[in-house]
Every structure is written in structure tokens, then in C-alpha cells.
Amino acid sequence: MAVLPPNVTADSFASAIREYEAAVGAEWVFTSDADLAAYRDPYSIFRDTERESLASAAVAPQSVEQVQAVVRIANRYRTPLFPISTGRNFAYGGASANLSGSVIVDLKRMNRVLRVDADRNFALVEPGVSYFDLHRYIQERGLKVWIDCADVGWGGPMGNALDRGMGYTLPFFREHANAVCGVEVVLANGEVMRTGMGALPAADSWQEYKHGFGPDPSGLFFQGNFGIVTKMGFRLMPEPPHYRSGAIRLPKRLDLIPAIKLVNYLSDSGMLGEVFYESPLRALLGNSGFSAAANRRGGADPAEMDRYAADNNLDSWQVELQFYGPRATCLANWEYAKSRFESEVPGASFLEGESLDIPLTQEQLMNPRPWFRNGLWHREVSMGIPSLSAWSLVDARSAAAPDGQVVAHAGFFPIIPRSGEWVFRAQQVFGDAIADMGLPPFNAALSTPLVWAMFAYQMVFPLPDDNEIVHRALLRLVEVGAENGFGDYRSPPFHQDHVSDMYSFGDNALRRFHETIKDAVDPNGILAPGRGGVWPSVYRQFRHDWSRDA
Amino acid sequence: MINRRELIASTVGLSLAATGAAARTAAPAEAGPAGMATRGKPQSVPRIFVAERDLPAARLAAQEAEARGAEIVWLDANVTPVYTRLDLAFRPAGFTVAGLTSAHHLFVLERLGWDRGLRTVRRAELGTAVEWRLEPRRLDSKKGADTFFEGV
Fold first, then answer.
1. Does B29 sit within 8 Å of A33, measured CB to CB?
2. Cβ of B84 and A27 within 8 Å?
3. Which of A120, A126, A124, A148 is nearest to A135 (CA)?
4. Between B113 and which of A363, A510, B1, B118 could a Cys-Cys bridge form, CB atoms 3.0 to 4.6 Å apart?
């Protein structure tokens, strides 16, 4: 299984490995199949095929100085590097690189929580800090701040933010890249750079004012390959004293349009945490007539869907709201939300949720309202508590193949404008695309927006358990989405070039700009070639053209 | 063919060398080469045995493991408490851990073990479950860490 980096001889690579060992310690350089197994993507569409991306080696530095040394060695021997933090970016490639043969720079040993300030509400961490680590650090010290977790807590805040992951509390915190304030980066030439106020040596405001002075290059390091991030600051949510939830049920299909307008208002005014949309009509999916209506080509007929709802005494939509803050404020905001829905959406009804002082008791934590979306999983992350309970929802491993590739797990979450009209449009576009591909219908008319991003919606589309089908379907969905303005926000490495191709305004002016910078700051192209669709000139021939597979 | 009892016994540390038994093991797909793993040698009792409470075979194995001196950690539907417990326990130094769990729980714990310098040396089907064993990575001539972490 051993692979070499492109254009590197075995002798030269052996010399590079010896230098890596001298730099970080021999025990922290991994070259055996057993050790490198940890850096394979267990969910790759291409697992165990010639197209799977494999590491040539892995090196685990423990300090910024060692990262600098690794980068300098990579330049000397032209060994491409692919940095990871916790390596748990499953659905988006895990620890695997865009370019097969890369040397993985495993930053798990750099695992210090450097600072948490619960008066100024920020944290500064190293790459290997997991959500569990940061949460434990805060809890052990009794600090009154929350973290915003990704679905699965074994990942870390830095890696997740760098891939623009999202979470579940208030908007400002749950779009993780937006909550970042200050990064430290080892550049391709081995220099260390700090962004924002971190560039001012005496400043203590690095995690408070992210822009500093002059152009702010921080964004280049997100889904990018312009440096290895070694420290990152985050804004933290002050621990709220109270939590309240409630749900609103809407009788008619088109009620989603005014509902989304109202939710936008409430959320953008700072009143709401994560909002969960759901359709009670899912209870009818065993009815073949209803199933046909929910999968109708060209989009569902609102009148037909409303008839099914009325005949079965069901509402068309449920919107779950969460409030954080003082008890009185939570109640007032919930009452205000109800009054707005009552006056603007005829027939809206309301389910009282919970009203709980924070911190919750364990019993309160483990027993969310039965109607609360996805139960415990969302409960924990909505309370800023990292967990692995979501994992059982996505992992379908069998006893017969406990670590073999079972099915691909690849994220496809297109960005959708925040309006009911656009949600219906997305349902129709992707529903028709799935039908055109001859794939099983996914009840498009019941697909609901995911409210992760601050100012955009996303949707999720289940696909069959067949890697080749998933591969082609994802490629096609990326294209169909792009044709209708729905761009994928994040992708596993094997499809990043295809997604990048879609962002083509001005003859791909954005990508050409990125690659101009890339060639200037990383002339040997050693840092994560291909990440985010950005290829240095020396490896540009490895860019995938998937258009024929779509 | 090895029987169930022998299979469990091998997981919890009873030597099967004399039986010559070969469990129906999936080649530890992600386990180390011969020089790194400990298969074929008498195995010590794991410090911790992870037993998924809903699996009858796991409950049986837990009894045997406990009798051999292993600490039993019960795994219920949510793997989080076991993960976080082992995460902290492995920080000072990795140690041998075995278990009998569902496959998707092994997947989670195995990733944690890899991070802490452990490697999978045994993995075998047992009905709908998997029995497994993780041991500290053998460094052979490389001295030093047996855990990925040196403390937080």
C-alpha cells in the first residue's frame, strides 16, 4: 500500500523521512501501513480503489518550532504536506489529503488550551484540542462560558472552523468560522505569522478584534492551503441563565413562506438559537398516494398536500424555537414569537416546550420533550455539550465489516437563500434531479431547511448505499445545484475540484486569484495542494475534471 | 473452529496457545504488521474490558474478564461516556483494552485508541457483535511514547 509523493524518488523520500525523524523524534514519524491506516478516509467513495488518496507518511510535531522544521524539510525534498488537527472530519475526507502521497502533518500533539477568558468570552487553542478537551477545561474551572460544538464532539474547534463547520447555539457562535478571532500560521517558507491584533506584539486584544490593520488574510486559511494554522482564537457564548423551547405548527404548505420571514426576523434580532423545521406529514409516507404527491416531478402541489394534511388532521410544518437568556427575556421572546405567528399565519398553533434554569440537571439534559427534533443528539449540542450520540445516526457499520468501507459518507449541503419560495424551489430542483438519475425518491416536498449558517439555509439529501452511485449523484447534484444558484459549501477532497469548478464567475476569477497567491507564497506547492480546489502550478495537473462522471 | 467461549477467553486474556485455535478473525484490517502486534504471544489481561450491556455475549465476557482482574466498563446506547473515560485514562499512557461491542462502537473507540498510540491486534465477529483488543503500539527499536499524548 505504500505510496510515494508525486515526483519524489524512494531514496529522496527516505532522506526526507530521516530529517523528519530528526526534527520531531523518530517515534512521531509514521510510515507503516498499520500506522498510516489512521489517516485513510473510512468513508471514501474510492476506498480500496486505485483512486483512493493514501498518505506516504505522517509526522506529528509537538510545537510551532517543529512545524516550522517540518515545512522547511518539505521544501527541501518537495514532499507535499497535508495538515490535520484531530483528523475527525468524517464526511469531508477525514484525515485524507487531496493529493495522494502527501505527508500528513498530524497536529494532535499540539493539544493545549492556551487561554479561556470568561469575562471577555474567548478562547485560544492549539490544533489538537477537541471539543471534549475544551469543554472539560471550562467545566473543571467553573467558567461561565459555552462552546458551540459540531455534531460529533471528538472533532475540534480549530479543524471544524477551518472547514467552516457549524453548530447549534446562537447564530454568532454556531457558524464557526465567523466566531474565529485571530489565527497564528506557519507559512510555506517556515515563518510564523499572526493575523489581526496578533500582529501587534504587545496587544492583548487578539481574540477581540479580528481585523487589526490593513488587509486581513485570515480567510485564506479556511478551506485553504496557504499555511498551517497553529493557534486559533474563538469567541465564546456567555453561559445563559435560562433556556426555553417551544414549537409552532402550521396547517398549510405555503405557511412556510411567512414562517421563514418571521424566523429570519426573530433570529437576526438575536432572539433565537438554532431553529428546527420539520414536517408532521412524514407520518403519511406509508401512504402511496401521499408519497407520490410528496415526490411529484416539478414540485408538490400545495392544494394536494393541504388536502392530505386536512384529511389526516395533521399540520404541514413544525418550527421548533429555542431561546437563551434571562428567564423573563426567554418568556417574553417566546410570547412575542407566538403573537407574531398568531397574527401573520392563520391557523398557527403552539406547543409549549421547556423552561429550564441552566445548568440543566442530568435528568433534564437526557429528557428533552418527545417532539424535540432528534432527541438527545440535538439537546446536547443545543446546550453546548459535546457528544458522540450523533454518531450512531450516520454510521452503518456491520459486524461483518466493522472497519471496512460500508457506504460512503460524504457531505453535500448546498447553500439556499432564506425564503420559503427558495426552499420550495430547492425541493423541486433536487427532487427532479434525483428522479432524472433514476434514484429512489427522497420525499422532496418534506425536505426542510437546515438553519446552521447565520444567514443561509442548507438541505440534506439521502442517497443509496452504493459508492459509484453516490459518486455520480453527488457530482450531478453539485452541477444541478450550481445551475440554480445553490452552491455546495464544503466537500470531501475527492469532489473539491468539481465544487470549485462551479464557482466560475468571471472565468473562475476567484480560483485564479487564489492560485496566483498560492504560487507566490508557496512556490514549491508543499502545503495541501488541491485543498479547496486551489492547486499550485507544480501540481496543477492533478486537478480532477469530473464533468464526464457527472 | 474456535467456539464462543474460547473466543471470549482469548479476548480477555486467557492463553489459547495450547489449543492452537484460530478464531474467525477479520485480519485486523487496520492492525499492525507482525513486528508491531502481539498476536501469537500469551496476552496479558486487559486493564479495561468494554462490554456493551445489550449484548448477551458481552455480559458473559464481562464476567470472565472481571474474574481475570479486568475493570469492566459498561457501554450503553451512547458511547460518549466510555469514550470520554478512556480518553482521560489513556492520557498518561496507553494500555491494553479489550471489548465486545457493536461494530460502530468499536469504530469510535478504535479511533481514540489510535490517537493514543494503541493498535488493533484482534478483531473477530461474534454474531452481530465484534470482539476486539487494542494494545500499545510496539515501537521496536524506537523507544519512547506508548501514547500519542503527553498530557493536557
1. no
2. no
3. A148
4. B118
What lies within 8 Å, CB to CB, of B148 at 6+ separation is A60, A108, A109, B94, B114, B115, B116, B117
Q: Is B148 on the interface with A (CB under 8 A)?
A: yes
Q: What is the pTM of this model?
A: 0.90
B125 and chain A in contact, CB less than 8 A? yes
Smallest CA–CA distance, residue A68 to chain B, in Å, is 20
Contact B107 A42 (CB under 8 A): yes
Cell numbers at residue A140, please? 473543571
Residues of A in contact with B79 (CB under 8 A): 388-389, 391-392
The residues near B104 (Cβ < 8 Å, ≥ 6 apart) are A391, A392, A395, A396, A397
> How far apart are alpha carbons A131 and A122 in whole angstroms?
14
Residues of B within 8 A of A399 (CB-CB) are 102-103, 125-130
Chain B interface includes A33 (CB < 8 A)? yes
Q: Which pLDDT does position A451 carry in this prediction?
A: 76
Comparing CA positions, the residue from A185, A182, A221, A229 lying closest to residue A203 is A182
- Tens of pLDDT, residue by residue over A98-150, are 999 999 999 999 999 999 999 999 999 999 999 999 999 999 999 999 999 99
Strand extents, DSSP E, A330-451: 349-357, 415-416
Q: Is the CA virtual torsion A483, A486, A491, A496 positive or negative? A: positive
Q: How many Å apart are CA A296 and CA A288, to the nearest integer? A: 12
**CB atoms near residue A6 (< 10 Å):** 18
CA–CA min distance B115, chain A (Å): 8
Please give the Cα distance from A137 to A126 (Å, whole number).
Answer: 13
Which of these, A382, A547, A529, A401, lies nearest to A476 by C-alpha position? A547
pLDDT digits (tens, 9 = 90+) for A204-250: 999 999 999 999 999 999 999 999 999 999 999 999 999 999 999 99
Dihedral class, residue A18 (left if φ above 0, else alpha if ψ from -120 to 50, else beta): alpha
State what percent of residues in chain A have pLDDT above 70: 93
Side-chain-side CA neighbours of residue A428 (13 Å) = 13
Residue type, A66: Q
What is the number of other CB atoms lying within 10 angstroms of the CB of residue B139? 14
Report helix, strand or coil for B94: coil
Average pLDDT, chain A: 92
